[in-house]
Amino acid sequence: MASTGPPQSLKRSDTLLTREGDQLIITPLGAGNEVGRSCVYMSYKGKTILFDCGIHPAYSGMAALPYFDEIDPSTIDVLLVTHFDLDHAASLPYFVEKTTFKGPVFMTLATKAIYTLLLSDYVKVSKVSIEDMLYDEQDILRSMDKIEVIDFHQTLEVNDRHLRPAEIPQFSPDICIIESTYGPSVVMASPSGLQSGLSRQLSEIWCSDKKNACVIPGNVVEGTLTKTIINEPKEVTLMNDITASLNMQNCQSVEMYFNSEKRLAEKTPEVGETVSGLLVKKAFTYQIMAPDDLHVFSQLSTENVSQRITFAYTGAFGVLEHRLKQILESVESLPDEESEGPAFRVHERLTVKYESEKHISLHWRSNPISDMVSDSVVALVLNISREIPKVVVKSEEDTKTEENSKKAEKVVHALLVSLLGDVKFGENVKLVISVDGNVGHLDKQSGNVESENEGLKGESSIPVDPKCCEANPSICVLAPSLWFSLYFRLLPD
Question: Which one-letter DSSP state was computed for residue 320?
Fold first, then answer.
């Protein structure tokens, strides 16, 4: 009953092991690439389970047993029998009575009732010598006392591990071990290269059984799975990066890795700390778990939504960063090589990037807190943009015209002071002129004179040619008659 050779592992090629307890090992001690003596050994997190304990109907004596010498029966925590067929239950009396196994055995009431009848008939009709008999009827009766009955929809706890009821589960199982029987089936599937589609899926399901065959009717292209199979490899790489043997044998182990611990947060909380996580409800059961574990322990999945907003900003990017540092608690500059240009991060949630002289952009992963931070930053940036004084660039011609106007105004003011004495600049482009206690307000543009003295009111003309003064203030010409008229009008009657 020795193993046919060193087991070939079925494992993920780039698996990152975080804990040794995450490793699940499944080893068929029988029914591996054959029909008969079903017996599957499974080890996970320090616990071992044996599924079924049958015989091979084509052999007799010790040769009909599963490969029990590959394991230590005393380390088996529990043995589960799925149903009463001989190839699933007929070696149970031998295993519980003549090995070091001391654990509990579970099966349904119907299986136990038929088990004793079927095995009694098996002993009676077996045409073997007494020396080759695996057990007798007394061994069968004694094994009955060690079998515990489990009902449908019943959950039992064995060594702090739950045995779920035997039914189609409402959750997605991680591992499914099923019995398959012979039956010829021909499926024509495409593509012929087996690189994807239905043909690839069927190939991965059937490739481990040597009784299955693949007929390749067309050309073979390099780099496809078809080309690999033609070279007759011992194993191939599946679409999920698992390396699969093309001919799985008894005592060949399958190794898988699972993250079995539900995390409530990124780190294990200490006593008194606040626990944060997702509260998941299914039926009447509530569970709290870390967001990253949601897809592992439930049928739910999560998605990340990345948001970006670009808007106008014409101020200096450094000024913006400085102003935000004065208002917000956490604003950190980012290296150019990391952000591909000037950028800074706000509260480790939102990134502000310089896009151009007229635009900046905000980037963040959407969640309630980050969305709130982004709204605050947008409001602050828009407010800062309104506070920045606007700079109007004037042409050289406009600048020269403005300078000439100021010079002309100064010349006119100087001439009026020399003629009338008390002349001051008033509001709304008016000159305030005082003559012997009479005050008049002269509009420099229209030439109108306003005064409390009715005799001074009326129209006059400013004796200055504005165009002439703007062009050359030094040649401004006064009209003496007009000035004298103005002078005398301002004199008292």
Answer: H
